[in-house]
Structures are given as C-alpha cells and as structure tokens.
C-alpha cells in the first residue's frame, strides 16, 4: 500500500476517533454535573470496570452497569456519554485483529477518488438509457457490468471498453467504481494521461522511493480504472513498458483493471505493442466490449 495514502487515511480515522471520544467526554461531564444520581451510577460503572480489569470475571456486570447509565441518560433526555464511533466494527481504529477494516478501505478509496479528479460518481440504479439509440443493448451491458462488480472475486480481471466519444464509457465507469466502493473495495480511478505523467515523472527521476511509491499507487488497489487509454503522451522506454508492467503485475496478483479507450484492439497493438494487446484480448482473463453509437457488440 502506498504509505502516504495509507497514513492520510489512518489520520482521517484517528481524527474521527478523537472527535467521537472528546464529544463523549463533554457529554459525560455535563451529565455528571447535572445529577448526583447519575454521578453515582457512573462511578459504579467505572469501579466495576476497574475491578474487571484487575481480576476479570465481571464482563457481564460491566455491561449491566453500562446499560443502567444508558437507561438513565435516555430517561433524562441526555445523549449517550459513550463515544459514537463512525465505525462500530473497529471503533475507528481501522483494523480488526490486524486486518484492515472496511472503513479504512473506504477512506483510502475516498482519497484516491478525490485525487483522480473524476468528480461525482454515478449509480447504476439512476442510469437513464433514453439518450441511447440502442437502449436494450445498453441495458444488457450495464447489467453485465453490474453483475461483474458484484462478483467476489471476479472471474475475469481485465475489462476493456472501447468506442468513440459520447457512447457513455465514462458514465459506465463511474457507475462501476461506485458499485465497487459500495462493496467496500479499494478503487483507484485515473486517466491514462495522468497515470502516464505520474510514471514518467517517477521513472525519469533517480529517486527510488518515488518510483516505488508511484508504482504502488497503481499496483495495490483492488480495482484500477484507466480512463481514455491512448490520450497520454508517450515517453520512449517508459510509457509502454510501465503500462505492460502494471497490467501484468495486476494480473499475477489477481487484481482487476478496467480500461476505457477510443482505440480498437488493432490500434492498441500498433500504438503500444503485442504484449499489451495480447493481454487485453486474452479471453481466459479479459472481457472486451466494443461500444458503437448505434450498434453495440459484446465480444
Ligand atoms: Zn472500521
């Protein structure tokens, strides 16, 4: 995982945790100061907790005392004095038993999406097909892609969506990204242009750390969307090789890549190379879809 992004995401979570705890602390003081009765209930609860920490065996009683506090608060119109974490599963720690919690994954994705500049994502459910001439086929394609997003893990790890401008590729991609995020996947959305710039910058530098961090951004996410392949300005010796490396490495790791492009597969072979075009048309691991304005062919 890219260290910078991971640190950023963890910081956001620990801010949320701190906030939840400091809000709880304020509410607690308020409740204690307002009622002697509550103060005693709360003291009982704390004593029981301390006793349990020392000698154990009082877990149930701690819970009972906590419920008594909650009951009093509710009856007296106070909000809970216990922290209201944004994630109930990990209490905003980001990890459960050493495994990354979905909430941390979500924060990572939020950062990646924000950096991508794609703006607002779309929902499959809200898609409007009236602007398409081939509505039925579009609906079929959307259903196919929606089902693919719900596969866990997907049987095919590369999706290639090609077709001219205005056939709805980017809209479809935004729906897919959103669906995957809702399934708690780590998703990165980039344009081929910006990914290429990023890689060229790193690989023309002599900074090994930068190279590693840059590559990780494209290798670690569970789903990588590369929009508009073919619009980047290729740098000899870097662009094509790095694209191949990313596609290949992701395939080996079983991670999915979704590419949109105006280029058909022959163009890809001509403008990149045989390795990349073969990777894309490999039927065992890829789904290639050609979108035409009127005539949509699923291949
Ligand atoms: Zn969590």
Short description:
The protein is an alpha/beta fold. The protein has eleven helices and eight strands.
Strand order, largest beta sheet: 4-5-6-3-7-8
What is the CATH architecture term of the largest domain? Answer: 3-Layer(aba) Sandwich
Poorly predicted runs are: 295-299
Compute the CA-based radius of gyration. Answer: 26 Å
Structural class: alpha/beta
**Can you count the beta strands?**
8
Query: What is the distance, rounded to the nearest whole angstrom, between the alpha carbons of the first and last residues?
Result: 34 Å
Quick one: overall form?
A: elongated
Strand content: 5-15%
Could you walk me through the main structural features you see in this protein, from its secondary elements to its overall organization?
- With 299 residues, the protein is of the alpha/beta class.
- The protein has 2 domains: 3-100, no CATH class; 117-298, 3-Layer(aba) Sandwich (Rossmann fold), CATH 3.40.50.
- 56% of the residues lie in helices and 11% in strands.
- The chain contains 11 helices and 8 strands.
- It has helices at 3-34, 36-55, 59-75, 102-116, 135-150, 169-182, 192-203, 208-219, 239-252, 265-271, 274-281, and strands at residues 95-96, 99-100, 158-162, 187-191, 223-229, 256-261, 286-290, 297-298.
- The protein has a 6-stranded mixed beta sheet with strand order 4-5-6-3-7-8, sandwiched between helices. A two-stranded antiparallel sheet has the order 1-2.
- Strand 1 (95-96) and strand 2 form a beta hairpin.
- Helix 1 crosses helix 2 and helix 7 (192-203) runs antiparallel to helix 8.
- The longest helix has 32 residues, at 3-34.
- It is elongated.
- It starts with a helix and ends with a strand.
- Mean pLDDT is 91; it is low at 295-299.
- The protein binds zinc ion.
- Zinc ion binds at residues 87, 89-90, 101, 103.
- Zinc ion (ZN) is lined by residues 87, 89-90, 101, 103.
């Amino acid at each position: 995982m890219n260290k910078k992004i991971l640190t950023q995401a963890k910081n956001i979570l620990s801010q949320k945790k701190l906030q939840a705890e400091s809000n709880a602390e304020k509410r607690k003081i308020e409740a204690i100061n307002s009622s002697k009765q509550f103060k005693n209930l709360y003291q009982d609860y704390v004593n029981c907790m301390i006793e349990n920490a020392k000698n154990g065996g009082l877990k149930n009683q701690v819970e009972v005392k906590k419920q008594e506090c909650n009951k009093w608060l509710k009856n007296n119109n106070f909000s809970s004095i216990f922290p209201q974490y944004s994630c109930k599963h990990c209490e905003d720690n980001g990890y459960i038993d050493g495994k990354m919690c979905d909430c941390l994954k979500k924060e990572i994705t939020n950062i990646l999406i924000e950096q991508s500049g794609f703006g607002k994502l779309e929902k499959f459910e809200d898609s409007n097909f009236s602007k398409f001439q081939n509505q039925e086929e579009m609906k079929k394609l959307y259903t196919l892609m929606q089902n693919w997003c719900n596969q866990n893990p997907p049987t095919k790890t590369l999706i290639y969506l090609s077709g001219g401008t205005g056939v709805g590729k980017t809209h479809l991609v935004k729906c897919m990204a959103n669906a995957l995020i809702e399934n708690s996947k780590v998703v990165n959305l980039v344009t081929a242009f910006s990914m290429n710039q990023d890689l060229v910058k790193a690989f023309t530098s002599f900074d090994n750390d930068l190279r590693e961090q840059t590559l990780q951004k494209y290798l670690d996410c569970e789903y990588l969307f590369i929009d508009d392949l073919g619009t980047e300005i290729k740098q000899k010796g870097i662009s094509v090789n790095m694209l191949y490396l990313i596609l290949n490495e992701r395939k080996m790791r079983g991670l999915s890549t979704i590419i949109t492009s105006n280029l058909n597969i022959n163009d890809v072979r001509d403008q990149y190379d045989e390795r990349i075009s073969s990777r894309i048309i490999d039927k065992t691991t890829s789904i290639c879809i050609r979108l035409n304005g009127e005539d949509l062919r699923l291949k």
